Amino acid sequence: MNVTLRKIGNSEGFIIPKEVLDRHNLKAGDVLSVTEDGNDIVLKPVDDAFERQMKTARQVMDKYKVALQKLAE
What we know:
The chain is of the alpha+beta class. The chain has helices at residues 18-23, 48-63, 65-72, and strands at residues 6-8, 11-13, 32-37, 40-45. It comes from Phyllobacterium salinisoli.
């Protein structure tokens, strides 16, 4: 399956065919991570639950930074 890069504002992008979106349960507004694997470009859905958990963990670590440093000693 081929897609064509298109000008979108000041960026460039491509349209993901509906069949691919349906197969991977993707919809408008979903966030994808972009990585490179050698010569390949890999798109993967971002796990929102994991991102929320990491945000909460960072907030807790910031709040208890001193106590966590003492515990680590």
